[in-house]
């Protein structure tokens, strides 16, 4: 099940621009985005509210069509990748589970859509249920699960699709601090075993420093890349260490002016 990791570039974003139509004209969400993501890399997108983190994520995942620029996957333009759904999958903040299906059936659903054999579906779903600690809960439905367990189902479902890339849009944002910390550790453990490429949107500086190989710090609207920080820390990371705190301070300094800009923009439109 484990995918091999290399240092080669998997995703390349060049001069990306995203605009949305409004009643007053157009809204510029992203401008001049340039980014490289390597195979097996864990990348966090971090920035103030409304800076376009999710817009960038969904542009890469092809849920949104950019206004300008290009995105390539394995050196092939995304416009020409017909089977992109087999290469990337998304884990949302809301677990997006089917309430009438059990844990096992929720994980199996995309595999059934792909037309896999029942034997293969069972093998894959059991493997990932066990990986996220849900095998004993396989017959429960979502309303019988805690918030953290629901997110585990979502992660297991994404892993079961065995895509090269997992896009994660603030998957732990709605969870309490204790559950969030536990799932962060579990996600890193899974990532180290599976070596998938992960692009992870977060508002949390501490979460980004704990998880990422590389943190993409974005500016306030229109969203641009303000800085890219390589996190040179081991695994698992001590959040109280001097090195960890230094990364937090550096990023807080970068984001301070962007957060002020966001607040000023919000005040001007009230």
Describe this structure in words.
With 270 residues, the chain is α/β, with parallel strands linked by helices. The chain is 37% helix and 25% strand. It has a six-stranded mixed β-sheet, sandwiched between helices. Strands 2-1-4-5 form a four-stranded antiparallel β-sheet, covered by helices on one side. It is globular and about 50 Å long. It starts with 8 loop residues before the first strand and ends with a helix. The mean pLDDT is 88.
Spell out the key features of this protein.
270 residues; alpha/beta; six-stranded mixed β-sheet; four-stranded antiparallel β-sheet; 25% strand; globular
* Rg on CA atoms, Å: 19 Å
Query: What oligomeric state best describes the polypeptide chains here?
Result: single chain
Could you say which structural class the secondary elements and strand pairing correspond to?
alpha/beta
* Helix fraction bin: 25-40%
Low-confidence stretches: none
> Helical region count?
7
Please outline the helices and strands:
Blueprint: E1 9-22, E2 25-38, E3 42-46, H1 53-60, E4 68-73, E5 76-77, E6 88-91, H2 103-113, H3 118-131, H4 147-160, E7 165-169, H5 177-194, E8 197-202, H6 205-211, E9 214-218, E10 225-230, H7 242-268
Parallel strand pairs: 3-8, 3-9, 6-7, 7-8
Antiparallel strand pairs: 1-2, 1-4, 4-5, 9-10
Helix pairs in contact: 2-3, 2-4, 3-4, 6-7
């Amino acid at each position: 099940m484990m995918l091999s990791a290399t240092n080669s570039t998997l995703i390349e974003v060049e001069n990306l621009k995203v605009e949305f139509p409004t009643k007053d004209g157009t809204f510029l969400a992203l401008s001049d985005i340039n980014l490289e993501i390597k195979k097996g890399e864990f990348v966090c997108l971090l920035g103030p509210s409304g800076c376009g983190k999710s817009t960038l994520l969904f542009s890469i995942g092809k849920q949104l069509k950019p206004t300008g620029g290009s995105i390539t996957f394995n050196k092939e333009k995304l416009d020409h990748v017909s089977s992109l759904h087999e290469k990337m999958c998304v884990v949302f903040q809301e677990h997006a589970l089917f309430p009438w299906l059990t844990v096992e059936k929720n994980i199996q659903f995309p595999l059934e859509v792909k037309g896999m054999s029942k034997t293969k579906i069972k093998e894959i779903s059991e493997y990932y249920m066990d990986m996220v600690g849900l095998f004993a809960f396989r017959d429960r439905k979502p309303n019988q699960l805690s918030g953290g367990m629901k997110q585990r189902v979502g992660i297991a479902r994404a892993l079961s699709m065995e895509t090269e890339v997992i896009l994660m849009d603030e998957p732990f944002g709605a969870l309490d601090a204790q559950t969030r910390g536990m799932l962060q550790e579990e996600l890193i453990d899974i990532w180290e075993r599976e070596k998938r490429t992960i692009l992870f949107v977060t508002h949390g500086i501490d979460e980004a420093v704990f998880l990422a190989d590389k943190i993409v710090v974005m500016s306030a609207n229109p969203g641009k890349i303000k800085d890219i920080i390589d996190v040179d820390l081991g695994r698992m990371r001590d959040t109280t260490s001097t090195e960890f705190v230094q990364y937090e301070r550096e990023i807080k300094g970068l984001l301070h002016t962007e957060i002020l800009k966001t607040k000023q923009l919000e005040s001007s439109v009230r």
